[in-house]
Amino acid sequence: MTITNLFQKLTAGEAAGWAVVLLIMILSLIQISPIKLNPWDHIFGWIGKKTNGATEKRLEKLEKQLRDMWINQHRQSILTFARECRSNIEHSSDEWTNVLNVAEEYERYVEENHVTNGIITQDTVYLRALYQELSREHKI
Predict the structure, then answer these.
(1) Which three-class secondary structure state does DSSP give residue 83?
(2) What is the mean pLDDT of residues 72-77?
(3) Which CA distances in Å does 94 have to 7, 17, 27, 73?
(4) For residue 33, what is the DSSP state?
(5) Inter-CA distances, 72 with 53, 66, 80, 117, 138, Å
(6) Which of 3, 30, 75, 117 has its CA 20 to 30 A from that of 14?
C-alpha cells in the first residue's frame, strides 16, 4: 500500500486530525530547536493576555494608586518634619535618621522616574543643612 492509497482512504475528519497532530509536532520541533522562534510561547502568551486582560488592567490601576500613595506619604513626611523644625520642635536622632532616609528614597524615585518635585527639594536642602548644623553643635 502506497502513501497515495493511504491518503485516499482517509476521511475528511481523519485527515484533519492528522493535520492537527502534524502541526503540533512541527511547532514542538520549532520550539525545541535553537532557532529563536517559539510558537508555543506566543500562542500561550496570546491566550494568557486574552484571559487575563481585565485582571492586568485592574492590577495596573492598583499599582498606580499604591505608587501615588507612596509618593504622597514621603512628601508629607518631609514637609511635616521641615515645618516642625521651622517651629523649633526638637527631634531625636532616630527621627532625623528616618526623615533623611525618606528624603533620600524620595529623591532617588524622583530622579529615576522624572517626576516634578518643587518644594520638597527646598525642604530637603533645608533639613540637611539644619542636620549638619545641629550635628556640629552636638544637639542631635
Answers:
(1) helix
(2) 96
(3) 83, 72, 61, 18
(4) S
(5) 29, 10, 12, 11, 32
(6) 30
